[in-house]
Design brief:
Elements: E1 3-6, H1 12-23, E2 27-32, H2 36-43, E3 48-51, H3 57-67, E4 72-75, H4 90-118, E5 121-126, H5 129-133, H6 139-159, E6 164-171, H7 184-192, H8 202-214, E7 222-225
Helix pairs in contact: 1-8, 3-4, 4-6
């Protein structure tokens, strides 16, 4: 049985991706940092939850010792920050980069060890439309997500010779707990900017990830899943 690890996988986009892999017959492991309630709920569905802070090297190393090698890694764990740049504390910048970029690096490094030995594997980084086009008052978040796109392309070149594929999925405005900070009016305004006329779902993103799982000749790409939101 193949194993998939989805970081930040007990709710929102991560949960939808985890359930998609479970449906396909994978052993599915997910990480969470504080959400014990949703971890228990997802465990009841047959998914293995592990408490780990992906920004901490010791946590990530301990995690991989527990679950072993993985066939698929989805770097989904992330945090957001909505502030004008003059109000951003350096500690906030460091924390966001440590989770969004550092977590992807640490997990990819550990996953790659097994994948290279096996000469196969898939890493998918979950970026954002703001990583592609930038978001006002989200400069630090946008920078972290843009870094994931660059990381994807570089790592795809590095690991392709070992049979390991690395890709990226960039969601747009998705109905997730992270976006619950926006008011009904703000979400409605965003929806008006989406050519497809609706807010996306976690399942929309999961479908893109599963496409990458199924097509073994696709690597180094960034797939926008945003209903046309980023069309220039």
């Amino acid at each position: 049985m193949k194993t998939a690890l989805i970081t930040g996988g007990v709710r929102g986009i991560g949960k939808a991706i985890a359930l998609a892999f479970l449906k396909k017959g994978y052993r599915v492991c997910v990480t969470y940092s504080k959400d014990e309630e949703n971890a228990k709920k997802i465990a009841a569905q047959g998914i293995e939850p592990y408490c780990a802070d992906v920004s901490k090297e010791e946590d990530v190393q301990a995690l991989f010792k527990k679950i072993g090698g993985v066939d698929v890694l989805v770097n989904n764990a992330g945090i957001a920050l909505v502030k004008q740049i003059q109000d951003v504390e350096y500690a906030e910048f460091n924390r966001l980069m440590a989770v969004n970029v550092g977590g992807a690096f640490l997990c990819s490094r550990e996953a790659a060890k097994h994948m290279i030995d096996k000469q196969s594997g898939l890493i998918v980084n979950i970026s954002s439309v703001w990583g592609e086009v930038g978001g006002s008052c989200e400069s630090v978040y946008s920078a972290s997500k843009a870094a994931l796109i660059g990381f994807t392309k570089a790592l795809a070149k590095e690991l392709g010779w070992s049979g390991v594929r690395v890709n990226c999925v960039s969601p747009g405005v998705i109905d997730t707990p992270m976006n619950a900070r926006f008011s009904v009016e703000e979400m409605a305004a965003l929806q008006e900017e989406i050519p497809m006329g609706r807010i996306g779902t976690g399942e929309d993103v999961a479908k893109a990830v599963m496409f990458l799982e199924e097509n073994d000749y696709v690597t180094g790409v960034d797939i926008p899943v945003n209903g046309g939101f980023s069309i220039a």
